[in-house]
Amino acid sequence: MTYSFSKGFRHVIPYYYTHSIPSKGRWFGKTVLDVLSTEFSSVYPSDHLRQTIDAGNIKLIRRDKLSEPATEYTDWESLSTHVFKNGSILESRVHRHEPAVPTRDEKPIRIVFENDALVVVDKPGGIPVHPTGKYLFNSVKEILKHETGLEELYPAHRLDKNTTGVLVFAKTSESVNHVTQQIMSRSAKKEYLARVKGRFPPGRVETHHPVVENTIKRNVQPKDAHTAFERVAYDEHRDLSIVRCLPSTGRNHQIRQHLLHLGYPIENDREYNPELAGVKRRKKVEEGVCDQCGLPIYQDYHDELYLHAQKYTLEEGVFETEVPEWAELKDSKGTEW
Fold first, then answer.
1. Catalytic residue from among 34, 47, 105, 160
2. What fold does the segment set 101-327 form as a domain?
3. What is the value of pTM for the model shown?
4. Residue 160 bears catalytic tag
């Protein structure tokens, strides 16, 4: 995979990728054109669909009888008349334009520690940990594989896309299991820094407030969670606090929800800071049109989040990163707090 860099972002050179999707129950009785024009309209705009099919990039594989071989349909007329049945397969060859991700002056992802079992990195913001959704090669895992030449990497834990800091990868299934066991037994110690609105109380503040993990599943029940907090600094001029966050459980979005529950949401957290509820996100900017598939290429801007995984303590060692600039509060005279 080839990367390019411009305007502070890492780009993946567009590439072709074939999806093979077994037919879903809700597709039965619908034609391929019906499904593509509704559920995949963002991938195949109406003014581009005919061109895509004529180029042979869409295929319906259907077997009408078990005793007969499967038939493949690729032309416009067939795909507009033949419907999905149980066992049908939709093959879609797409020209993928992955969203760009931020880069630190085009430098490689910084490795904090490495041995035969682990690779610990300082994760930049705006990059997902592993392939997900629109991101495949522009994920920390794939970028790191590209930069180090390592063929196998296993994320030992997760960080949100916009969270920065210590991220542990294992080189083998045995070593990732060992780290996972430490996390599950809560012998692993995690320490985060956050910049929040308001004067956070001095001393140690703890909460066991249940959290609802960020998920697409419906009717999700809140789960037990525990986080301790300690104020590091307070800027009275801007009414902002730097808070050390010490979670002993690992629920998704736990720290962000606990800070909101305590009344001190992360300053720039669009999801959990009520003050930002009406603030529009920055829109994607069109960078041009792809000369291969004719679709627009967008620059997808990320949202910064003032949450940083500062330290991770395992049996293998204590791994720590530098304090981010946003956490270095200063008073009006330039004196650090």
1. 160
2. Pseudouridine synthase (3.30.2350)
3. 0.84
4. yes
